[in-house]
Amino acid sequence: MVSSEQRRRQLAREKFERQQQRREAARRKARRRNTVIAAALAVIVAAGGAAFATGAFSGDGDKKSDTASPSDSPSAQPSASPEPKMAVDAKAKYDMSLKTNDGEIKIAMDAAKTPHTVNSFKYLADKGYFNNTKCHRLTTQNIYVLQCGDPQGTGQGGPGYTIPDENLTALGKAGADGSVTFPAGTVAMANTGQPHSGGSQFFLVYKDTKLPPSYTPFGTMDAAGLKAVEDVAKEGVEGGTGDGAPKKAVTIEKAAVTKE
Questions:
Q1: Which of 26, 67, 151, 184 is the most buried (most CB within 10 A)?
Q2: Where are the beta strands (DSSP E) in 155-244?
Q3: What does the function comment of this entry state (predicted)?
C-alpha cells in the first residue's frame, strides 16, 4: 500500500518531469522558428547578394532586430549540432569551480565515469558560457535542488547540442516507487524527460532527494559549496511557492574546469 508520503513524492517527481517536458516543447518550437529564419536568410544571401551590396536592404534595420541571434537565444541553435570533440583525459579527475556572488562552489568530477559530461562542461566553461548566468530554479518541497546552467535564466536555454546519459546506475537500483536517492551534495544533469537530452543545465542537490535514475550524476559539491546552496534554500522561493526562482539570487560569475 502506498503511503501518503510516497504519494506526495511521486506527485512531486511527476510535476518535475512535466515541467522539463514543457520546457523542451518550448525549445523545439524556438528551434523550428529559427530554422525557418535561417533557411530564408540563406536564400536571400544566395539570390540577393547584389541587392544587399547596393543597399536594397538598408531600410530593414529595425526588422532585423526582431530575429533571434545565437547570442540572444542559445537554445535557437539546431539540436542536431554535434557535441564537442572529446578533449579531456577520460581516465582523470577534474574540478569545476563556480565562483558565485555568494561564494565559491567546488565540484569534483570523474571523467572515467562521465567522460561526455565532463568534456562538455570543460568546453563550455573554457568559452565562458556559464559566466554571469543566474541559477534560475529552486525547489523546496519533496525535491530539493538548485538548478543552474541556462544563460537565458528561463529554463529553456541550452548550448545547441545534447550529450548522452551516463553513470545512471551509480546511485543504485530503483525502488518500488521507481526512484533512487540523490544524496545531498550530488550534482546532476537536468534533461527534458527524454533519454540523452542533457545540454548545459544541471542541478545541485542540497538535501537527499528521490528522483528516477534518469539524470546523470556527474559531480559532488564540497562542504562549503553545499552549505552555500543550503543557505539559498533557507531563504525560499520568490512568491512563497515551493518551485521557482530563488528569493536569494545566485549568479555564477565565473566557471572553470581544471584537471586534478
A1: 151
A2: 180-182, 186-189, 202-205, 209-211, 217-221, 243-244
A3: PPIases accelerate the folding of proteins. It catalyzes the cis-trans isomerization of proline imidic peptide bonds in oligopeptides.
